[in-house]
Automatic annotation (TrEMBL), chains A, B:
Any one GO biological process: response to stress
Species of provenance: Cocleimonas flava
Protein name, as recorded: MarR family transcriptional regulator
Any Pfam family hit: MarR
GO molecular function, one term: DNA-binding transcription factor activity
Lineage, opening ranks: Bacteria, Pseudomonadati, Pseudomonadota, Gammaproteobacteria, Thiotrichales
InterPro entries the UniProt entry points to: HTH_MarR-typ, MarR/SlyA-like, WH-like_DNA-bd_sf, WH_DNA-bd_sf
Residues annotated as domain HTH marR-type: 1-137
DNA sequence: GAATTATAATTGACTACTCAAGCATTAGTC
DNA sequence: GACTAATGCTTGAGTAGTCAATTATAATTC
């Protein structure tokens, strides 16, 4: 049993724990973890707008996954579809004002639970993990 | 944006990458990541046997998830069901000889891909990640 | 500039789970 | 030792995705 193997198995369990912990808080805002990740990416994009494929790449799901996650978000107007005048194939996704508000509120809850879930490591150790995870990505 | 939040989001992407990387190799042996985790736990258990609930806890899925994953594994005889004479409610799961063989073969592939996926960090850094992940679990 | 190839997005069919309800069986209580 | 509560497991219904095929548009090549 190598350490690399051990790490992958351990990290799988850790990831499940972290995700469940955060999801509990996000559900109070009516959004899922995946929806939060989508809004998080849109929030950082210029004009709060991205192509569906870029979104897919950034959160590591398929294009069809993006279509399926966005459908209900459009219905409740968290995001809106926009055409790209230069290329009729692409449909741009934009975070609405309402979406921006919900995201900002949800982010507070996310950060609180994140801090609490990570409270067993020091600030320095957290920096180290961030750095090393970045190298692996 | 706190580092704790950043870490959780980053780790989610990392986990997806690691899991997909390993799954590609495991599929050559005809097993999924979850099936591998189950066999891995059984392999380490006394007499290669565990209760379904213990299995569920150890790999962080629900009891019903365990039932659903094990069904096809029983059909192809990777594991077998055993009654517990002391308590008729529990049904024990045991790794068969065939299961043991498949696991051992699959483990080699798992370790190779794990090493390769983790090759961007040093042995010391890997130890550090293992230690810190352990603290968070 | 017509024909071929590539890209963006969606859809139908499937998979791998979860959750809530149910059925046995065992444990705890009086 | 009968009654209630708790535990172990399974099942039906639902959810969040994947993959392969399809449609529409754009880019490339000849």
């Amino acid at each position: 049993m190598t350490n690399a193997t051990d790490f992958i198995l351990l990290n799988t369990l850790l990831n499940t724990k972290l995700q469940k912990g955060v999801e509990g808080q996000l559900s109070l805002h009516g959004i899922s973890f995946t929806e939060f990740m989508i809004m998080h990416q849109l929030m950082q994009a210029p004009n709060h707008t991205l192509r569906r494929i870029e979104l897919a790449d950034q959160i590591s799901i398929t294009a069809s996954g993006v279509t399926r996650v966005l459908a209900p978000m459009e219905k409740i107007k968290l995001v809106e579809k926009q055409a790209n005048p230069r290329d009729a194939r692409v449909s741009l996704v934009k975070l609405t004002e309402a979406g921006e508000r919900i995201y900002t509120e949800a982010l507070v809850s996310f950060e609180h639970s994140a801090e609490s879930l990570m409270s067993n490591v020091s600030a320095g150790q957290l920096d180290e993990m961030l750095k090393l995870s970045g190298k692996l990505l």
